[in-house]
Design brief:
- Helices cover 33% and strands 13% of the residues.
- By secondary structure, it is of the alpha/beta class.
- The protein has an eight-stranded mixed β-sheet with strand order 2-1-3-4-6-5-7-8, with helices on both faces.
């Protein structure tokens, strides 16, 4: 069953519904005066940081769903660095910094310890794509296999942005990073490498898996709320554009997240016990080059020596996603 609301209040030119158009009871958590403010002002995120926006909405929705009784484990990465420069912290919830690669194991240990003490406190684990898809992948798989009672959230900015914009297992094909050069005709990140963490999570047949972006905060909050209503291992993969690493304008962060879904490059879906249960259809389909041209990491595809062959390959990947998940609404 889908967790999204049947609200069709598209504004001309934006294809989105603002909070002011919705009844108070169905507005986002951010619209309420009693919001948690799990991560508050004073952090040092870059201007336009998608991860800061995503984490704020994820944790506020999770705290509300848990009735305020929640703790979180956070891997090393951008989110940890910009939110907790010693001796300061922007977190307003019990928060633990783990190593780069063991946040899923630490979160699982926290859940086990709380259960042993007879506590019903809920646990959320957090990491970027480097700490999830690469360095922490073994710990994450173990968490899934044991079905530990943890919601693990990956904030995917598609690279190791905190340490110099290196390639991760979530970096898309043809993207330029510090370790995937475009000099001398090299196409950037090779095609056929990397992995899809949401699909691997589905293969573990855990109770709940979902993808989301910072372009649709209602959908993001709904999926967090749904995940918190379930016990056992749960996984949420959130696309959070990075202006620095993507060489994009800070004001385009939400626009890029929306174009990623509208092009089919980042499908939005939910799955339970290994089966897809709902998808978010594309309402306004766009070609992938609308998304690519806003990012300097793809500039080599459109410069004085354009690579239409690589753009076509990326379009083919988006088309496969659209067909695989049935992302186009009939009519």
């Amino acid at each position: 069953m889908t967790t999204t609301r049947e609200t069709r209040l598209y504004q001309v030119g934006t294809f989105a519904a603002g909070n002011r158009l919705l009844p108070l009871e169905v507005r986002t958590v951010a619209a309420h005066g009693d919001r948690t403010n799990a991560i508050t002002s004073g952090h040092r995120a870059c201007r336009g940081c998608g991860e800061a926006l995503g984490a704020r909405f994820v944790l506020d929705a999770a705290v509300r769903a848990a009735g305020g009784d929640l703790v979180t484990a956070n891997a090393t990465g951008c989110l940890e660095v910009f939110s907790t420069p010693y001796p300061e912290s922007s977190w307003q919830v019990p928060w633990l910094h783990s190593l780069f690669g063991n946040a899923p194991a630490v979160a699982a240990g926290m859940a086990a310890g709380l259960r042993a003490r007879g506590r019903a406190t809920r646990v959320v684990g957090q990491a970027g794509d480097g700490g999830t898809v690469d360095i922490g992948f073994g710990c994450l798989s173990g968490m899934f296999e044991r079905n530990d009672d943890v919601l693990f959230v990956c904030y995917d900015n598609q690279g190791y942005m905190n340490t110099g914009v290196q390639r991760s297992g979530a970096t898309p094909p043809a993207a330029r990073t510090a370790t995937t050069s475009t000099a001398g005709g090299v196409p950037g990140n090779p095609f056929g490498q990397g992995k899809s963490a949401p699909l691997i999570a589905m293969a573990h047949e855990i109770p709940y898996v979902a993808t989301a972006t910072v372009a649709d905060l209602h959908d993001l909050e709904d999926k967090v709320t749904k995940a918190m209503s379930v016990h056992g291992a749960r996984y949420l993969h959130v696309l959070v554009p990075c202006p620095l690493g993507w060489a994009a304008e800070p004001h385009d962060t939400v626009r890029l997240a929306r174009l990623a879904t509208e092009s089919g490059l980042f499908p939005l879906f939910e799955a339970e016990h290994g089966e897809v249960t709902s998808v978010t259809p594309i309402r306004h389909r766009v070609p992938v080059d609308e998304y690519l041209r806003l990012q300097g990491r793809y500039a080599h595809l459109f410069g004085s020596h354009p690579r239409p062959d690589l753009v076509a390959a990326l379009q083919a990947g988006a088309d496969r996603n659209i067909a695989r998940f049935g992302l186009l609404e009939e009519g």
